[in-house]
Amino acid sequence: MKYFEKSASGGKEYIGLAITIFIMLTVAGCAKQEETGNIQEEQIPVYVTTVQKGDIKKTLKLTGNIEPWESVNIMPDISGKVKKIYVDNGDFVKEGQVLAELDTRSMALILKQAEAGLSVAESNYNDASKNWERIKTLFEKGTATSQQYEKAQLGYEAAKAQLEQAKAAFDIAQYQLDVSIMKAPFSGIIASKNMNEQETINPMMPGGQGVLTLADLSKVKIHVAIPENQFRDVLPGLDALLHVDAYSDEVFTGEVTKINPTADPLSRTFGVEIVVLNENILLRAGMFARVELTIKEKIDVPLIPVECVVKTANENYVFVIENGTAHRRNITFGLSESSMIEITDGLQIGEYVVTVGKEMLKDGSLVQIKENVVK
To answer: Residues 42-80, buried b or exposed e (16+ Cβ, 10 A)?
Structure first.
């Protein structure tokens, strides 16, 4: 009986010791598993880049239609039938070149008549002038009466008036003949042919078109509108880049020449004129243009991609990687464009900054870089 009690007591002690050892081993194993699992969770995969020096600019992107530098309707100052048109759409013409003319047969006859009238008037004036000088001399000598003097004077004045009238008639006839021939006031391109030969034109008709439309495309202008908050940034002389769909692989350069001093009351925008040299006449009136104005530019400053930055209501920050650990860093920035942002404080050139994976990080997180540093 005693042996049984002793054995039972020893068995209980053995069982208790075994349970204690099992619990200790289990806890140690769980602790090791838990420790290993935590390490794996904290190694968050991220993609990184480096802070690098570069150039950045702030631009305004605007749109507008291309207009000729100068455009004019070619028409005579008098009514008449169009006799001949010497040019067609798209023709290049030089200043002073004859473009079209009216039927001048009647005007030529009127000029001939006026020329004859002028000749008669000049002859009468010469006779009256000589007679007036002769009578005036005789009157001074006392050998001509007052009546003769006055008659000669009146004859001279009448002949002079008739001569002036004849000259005016001749000048009018000559003018009508001259303006019936339409010449280019400047070098340019025929933008449109608006009439056909043998049609009648009346320049006094409201809203009437000319025989032709001439455009100077040696340079072109584009009118764009800038928002009120950019008015102070846009100044005359500012460079402009121009893109058109017809020449998608080319960039045309121009400059701001005029800025409207008052804003449009409806849109609250300011009109801006941009002029572009067009020596090869590639740009044509009516083309749609996309304009880029560089209003600010900085050279050789610290830059990072915009996707690195986490923005909140009160601060902007990034995650910097040092020795496999992510550190949250507040930053301030200056200029930004579509892909890059200028860092003015908070980062140094060459530091590693997280681009992708930052949403899973907190200050002190362990990371695993998943690709080479983006240069």
So the answer is: eebebbbbebeeeebebbbebebebbbbeebebbbebeb
User: What is the number of other CB atoms lying within 10 angstroms of the CB of residue 356?
Assistant: 15
Query: 27 Cβ partners below 8 Å, 6+ apart?
Result: none
Do residues 125 and 163 make contact, with C-beta atoms less than 8 angstroms apart?
yes
Phi, psi at residue 248, to the nearest 5°? Answer: -65, -20
Q: How far is CA 5 from CA 10, 11, 19, 49, 273, in A?
A: 9, 10, 21, 76, 112
The Cα 142–Cα 33 span in angstroms is: 150
Question: What is the Cα–Cα distance from 115 to 170, expressed in whole angstroms?
Answer: 6
CA angle 230, 296, 273 (to 5 degrees): 50
How many angstroms separate the CA atoms of 369 and 49, rounded? 10
Rounded-to-integer distance, Cα 129 and Cα 153, Å? 9
Q: Structure tokens of 162?
A: 């008739």
Pairing of the two strands 310-311 and 316-322: antiparallel
Residue among 57, 104, 70, 47 nearest 307 (CA): 47
CA distance 60 to 227: 10
Give yes or no for a contact between 125 and 159, defined as CB atoms under 8 angstroms apart: yes
Find all residues with CB under 8 Å of 152, minimum gap 6, and list them. 128, 131, 132, 134, 135, 136
Number of other residues whose CB lies within 10 A of the CB of residue 257: 14
* Residue in the structure block whose two tokens are 């290049």: 92
pLDDT of 5 above 50? no
Q: What CA–CA distance (Å, rounded) separates 165 from 243?
A: 60
Averaged pLDDT, 308-328: 93
- DSSP letter (8 states) at residue 230: G
Helical (H) or strand (E) element with 11: helix 2-42
Dihedral angle, C-alpha 184, 189, 195, 197, nearest 10 °: 70
Q: Is the pTM of this model over 0.70?
A: no
Mean pLDDT in residue range 75-85: 91
Could you write out the three-class secondary structure of 162-180? HHHHHHHHHHHHHHHHHHC
Q: Residue 146: enclosing H or E segment and its boundaries?
A: helix 146-179
Which amino acid, residue 122? Answer: E
Report CA-CA distances (Å) from 358 to 295, 315, 319, 341. Answer: 32, 16, 7, 17
141: confidence class by pLDDT, cuts 50, 70, 90: confident
Q: What is the DSSP letter of 314?
A: S
